[in-house]
Design brief:
Length: about 210
């Protein structure tokens, strides 16, 4: 059994503008760096064995900040942890997507959630196999985490995955189980949001 605590990266300017990012490599802004630092402080309440991250800069920088807070070595990049590819919708805000692609499933180049699960879940399974009985921090993205939540609890309805939030899973016998959505780690993980209105944090993600 391995514990996998999935963290959404800190805020970027595109998050603040409510633009779909996907695999477009947008860096953290200063709010995002502060969110990552606070998330690291929250995670430091527990003991961790390693930090893994998506290769995209916003996740990788968040993971580096968190690793520093945890006193661990630099995070290890796992390419499969990257965000969902939203194809031609990347860079658009929700109203633009609705106008151009009213059927959200028809966006050219967009990965399906099933395709996201097909690359992310085996990567997590491999990490769990390499770290039996350990606890890992995995820094990824809202769309990727949403796909995993739907896989683990297909009948459940979860809220918005905010920047810097933590979602805990357990991998047991190659089966992913959700421990807690927006895991408080003994303190509400929404404290990592630096007090900004949560509706400002990539409202598009909730509909993706």
């Amino acid at each position: 059994m391995t514990e996998l605590f999935l963290v959404r990266h800190g805020e970027t300017d595109w998050n603040r503008q409510r633009r779909i990012q996907g695999v477009t490599d947008i860096p953290l802004n200063e709010t995002g760096r502060e969110q990552a630092r606070r998330t690291g402080e929250l995670l430091a309440r527990r003991s961790w064995d390693a930090v893994y991250t998506s290769p995209l800069d916003r996740a990788h920088e968040s993971a580096r900040i968190i690793s520093s807070q945890l006193g661990l070595s630099l995070p290890t990049v796992v390419p499969e942890l990257s965000e969902r590819n939203y194809g031609e919708a990347e860079g658009m805000v929700f109203t633009e997507i609705e106008a151009r692609y009213p059927d959200r499933d028809s966006v050219p180049g967009q990965e399906t959630r099933a395709e996201v699960v097909a690359r992310v879940l085996p990567a997590l399974t491999a990490l769990a196999a390499a770290h039996p009985g350990e606890s890992l921090v995995v820094v990824s993205h809202g769309g990727a985490i949403r796909a995993l939540l739907n896989e683990a609890e297909p009948e459940a309805s979860h809220g918005m995955i905010t920047n810097g939030s933590i979602h805990s899973f357990r991998m047991d016998d190659d089966t992913l189980r959700l421990i807690a959505f927006d895991d408080p780690i003994e303190l509400d993980s929404r404290a990592a949001a630096t007090g900004d209105d949560l509706d400002e944090q990539n409202a598009v993600e909730a509909a993706s």
